[in-house]
């Protein structure tokens, strides 16, 4: 998964990208999953290309329940199951 180009990876996991205006120290984005299984990954505009790429791949990894040991320890996610939708 880490070596696939994002334009290949995103359709494979039924995901799309969006921007968020949320900002703050250490904030790199969040993801939402609809009941239909559509994953939307939101990242702030201030991330550089490498930071955005890492954040997207990390959030996909968390969504899929895969090990995130290849990512920096500073990347952390909290998962909320709100019944109808899941957010990470």
Structure in a nutshell:
The protein contains two helices and five strands. The chain is α+β, with helices and mostly antiparallel strands and 88 residues long.
Instruction: Report the principal-axis shape.
Output: globular
Structure summary, number of beta strands = 5
Indicate the structural class.
alpha+beta
User: What's the tally of helices?
Assistant: 2
Percent helix range: 25-40%
Measured distance between first and last alpha carbons: 19 Å
Low confidence ranges: none
| Widest sheet, order of strands | 1-3-2-5-4
Main beta-sheet strand count, sense and barrel state: 5 strands, mixed
State the domain count: 1
Describe, in plain words, how this protein is organized in 3D.
This protein is 26% helix and 23% strand. It is globular, with a radius of gyration of 12 Å. It has helices spanning 6-12, 49-64; strands at residues 15-20, 30-33, 39-44, 80-81, 86-87. The chain has one domain (6-87). The model has no long low-confidence stretch (mean pLDDT 86). It contains two helices and five strands. It has a five-stranded mixed sheet with strand order 1-3-2-5-4. The protein is α+β, with helices and mostly antiparallel strands. Strand 2 and strand 3 form a beta hairpin.
